[in-house]
Amino acid sequence: MTAAERKARVRALAKVNLDLRVVGRRPDGYHELRTVYQTISLGDELELSYRPGHPDRLVVESQPVIEGNLVARAAELLMERTGLRGEVHIRLQKNIPMGAGLGGGSSDAAAVLLALPALAGVRLETETLLELATQLGSDVPFFLWGGRALGIGRGSEVYPLPETRQAWALLVVSPLHVSTREAYADLGSALTGQSGERIINSFQSWLWSQILGAGSIPETGSNDFESVVFRRHPALARTKDELRASGARCALMTGSGSAILGLFATRQRAERALGRFGDRAIKVSLVSRARYQSWWRRWLRPHIVAGRHWPPQSRYQK
Q1: Quick check: 1 pLDDT over 50?
Q2: Which one, of 78, 95, 87, 9, lies nearest residue 48 by Cα?
Q3: What is the domain-level CATH number for residue 262?
Q4: DSSP per-residue codes, 95-109
Q5: Can you give the pLDDT at residue 54?
């Protein structure tokens, strides 16, 4: 490492949706959502380096190669907005399955927004950080905080929720790549005639009873995309049934698919179910907001001001 070079290695964690309702289409062309996000321990790996004083240059390497990589877009947007000068090099190793509804690309983008300012000595107000995140994707703002959160509007308006006690989870990953655009198109006709008020009231009832009132892992959860995605891919519906039969307290598809989440009351039940699914399943843990942010402070420790500041503040700020 040269004297001027600053490096960090971070992880961009995946998310699951513990509930997801599509209320209807908005005037801006997006869909109005109600959802509960939850970070999990599965994550991509990013290595970032910054060389101040070098010619302006951005290099992004990815394994595998990803067309329209949000990592590059996030870095470009940040550099344009802040006038950041110098050489930026980012290496991305994908571990989060793509097209599975786990938010890997969005988490990668948020990781750049958190890490690069710390390396480069750039100070961003939280409002500006949120603005950039929202431009990159509807669930990117969630990954700026992690843990468990309520998402409304496009999903980009995010509010913290109480965390659950210890829970054990399996993620059953299918080789199927579900197109989000296709899932929304299929859902469009199903939404016709449904009352948005009724959908919101149902979600509110679930939120109060399962998240705010239960104090543990939810026993139920709904995902409006299941009706249309399962129709195209019946194997995913069978996977959900298998998880319930294996002792999952709650099982549902995450995002627009194709990953299916199972939440278990005990470690023993989760491990028995893992044996049943073999290499189709990944054992994961739910990552609280405090743990998420603690990990980020550790990853960026050489480059940030000590303390519980959030987002992390760079020690290179002038």
Answers
A1: no
A2: 9
A3: 3.30.70.890
A4: -SPTTSSS-HHHHHH
A5: 77
- By DSSP bridging, strand 57-63 and strand 87-93 are parallel
In the DSSP assignment, the letter for residue 139 is T
Say yes or no to pLDDT of 217 above 80. Answer: no
139 belongs to the catalytic site:
yes
Residue 265 lies in a domain: yes
The pTM of the whole model exceeds 0.85 = yes
Residues 13, 8: Cα–Cα separation, whole Å: 16
Question: Which tens digit of pLDDT belongs to each residue from 28-83?
Answer: 888 999 999 999 999 999 999 999 987 899 999 999 888 889 999 999 999 999 99
Cβ neighbours for 282, distance < 8 A, ≥ 6 positions apart: 42, 170, 171, 173
Cα angle for residues 151, 156, 162 (degrees, 5° grid): 30
DSSP-derived letter for residue 314 is B
Q: Which of 108, 139, 224, 240 is an active site residue?
A: 139
Q: Are residues 149 and 231 in the same domain?
A: no
Please give the Cα distance from 229 to 232 (Å, whole number): 5
Q: Retrieve residue 313's tokens.
A: 């503040």
Does residue 132 sit in the same domain as residue 152? yes
Selected catalytic residue, list 15, 19, 108, 224 = 15
Q: Is 15 labeled as catalytic in the residue annotation?
A: yes
